[in-house]
Amino acid sequence: MGSTWRRRLPVVWVLVLAVVLLGPALLPGHVLTYDMVWVPDLALTRDALGVGSALPRAVPSDAVVAVLDEVVPGQLLQHLVLLGTLVGAGLGVLRLADRGSLVAQLVSATAYVWNPFVVERLVMGHWPVLVGYAVAPWVVSAVLAWRRSGVVPASLWGLVPLGSLSASTGLVTALLLLATTLTVGPARRGRGLLVVAATLLVANAPWLVSGLLHASVATTDAGASSRFALQDEGGLPGPLAALTLGGIWNAEVVPASRLGVPGWLWLAAVVVLVVLGATGLRRRLGTPLVAALAGCAVLGWGAATLSWVAPTALGSLAASVPGGGVLRDSTRLLALVAPGLALVLGEGAARLVRALPAAARPGLGVALVLLPVATLPDAGLGAGGRLEAVELPADLAAARAVVAGLDGDVVLLPFSSYRQPAWNGDRKVLDPTGRALGRDFVADDALSVGGRVVPGEDPRARAVGEALRQGDERARADALRDLGIGVVVTERDAGEAPAVAGRTAYDGDVLLVQALGDVAPPVVPRTWVVAMTLAWAAYVGALVAGTVLGLLRAVGARRGRRHEGRTSPPRGATPPMR
């Protein structure tokens, strides 16, 4: 009974952490916060497939959701993704933690699930980043299995595509996999390197190929990096905040507890536990793997710190090298720090507990397990209420039905990227209207950060902006039609919007839909269609193959254990001589 309890407690604890962290986000409804926009039925638009005019920032994540929500309702799918991501992250790190120490397991799991990176990215709506974060320890575990068996696990074919739902997450997953692959002995590495290279190529094919197709517009404003750079958190300088996985550029999503004494307390605890746990982790996992994890941590922390020390360096890269904008939000690379940090914190906690008399160990163990929660208390219950499921206005479904019968793409007015609708509790969110309408749409992709505007990269959005600045509503309508825009959707309570001449197709409490007449949508070059078809075929093939092979091997292993259990002698019996 005792051993069963010890095995199950860490798993139950991970589930409790995830549920308490999400809180009201798990209630019926959709969670809409900053970049996280989920709707009942997301459409496979040109931008989702990587052949639209916008850079592939949501490739392949949008397409994956658009396919899955044909089977699972969007609301339920979002809840499963959010909860599954946090639970998967915790269970993944448990596979790497010291199974001989309950304290080490619980501290590692708590530190990996309940930390500033997770909370701030949740509020920012960066769910693909968190999926990649959850996949990271499973990738390390797969490499460990490779080291033991000499065979590249089929699970990597499913894990790596799942950890590459966006360009930045694909980069993190690739760096982690490559670093840990180097720890596999040369005799066992062999052809495995080719398998790893092929896996990384096909897993990142959608955004890589789409990025190449958009190379002519794939540079960003040089000044953007300074606005997305690592930031101080209260009295914590940026580099110190990054050591505890904080320092995101958007001060609006930083928990209040990070700005005061709790942030310093957690930093001090991290330093002490890292010092105490480093040697034990090296002995348990081996020097090569710990060196790989440490190297990833240094790389992630160093990239984030570089943006704090010299933001213009990354800005110049983003402005001159196509695709360099992937690094503009360099604090995303702090995901490379997290696996090694969580494991060494667990080792340090276990060593500290062992150093005390037996009577004092339970109390200190509980305190260390709860320390990440105690120093970040406002992360709970949906980041203090900032993550909350809401019902979408009925106007969105009604407008979608009307738009389905109209020609041309949609433009969203007012022509700005974010909204703060009253029905969403006045919480800021990327305009959800376009995604809810199920049609290709154009929205302004310029961002306002710290009172300064970061120009967008979408050339079609810029052209639409120019069309909306025409002198009168008839001229605006004509200019929009020339760009393939046949529908204008105006949100009534989102601010001033330029008038456009058109037939009123729907007049609701929240939305006004106007039809501009017959227009021809933009034509996608055939070469783009062929290139992206091949990229998607490779990505889906890897994901399906990895999932099926992984399940088959898991079933086979389970049957093998059952057979071994049936044929092994009873407990306490003497095995036969061989």
Automatic annotation (TrEMBL):
Residues 559-578 are annotated as: Disordered. Keywords: Membrane, Transmembrane, Transmembrane helix. The chain crosses the membrane at residues 76-97, 127-146, 158-180, 192-209, 263-281, 288-310, 528-552. Signal peptide: none annotated. This is Membrane protein YfhO. It comes from Nocardioides scoriae.
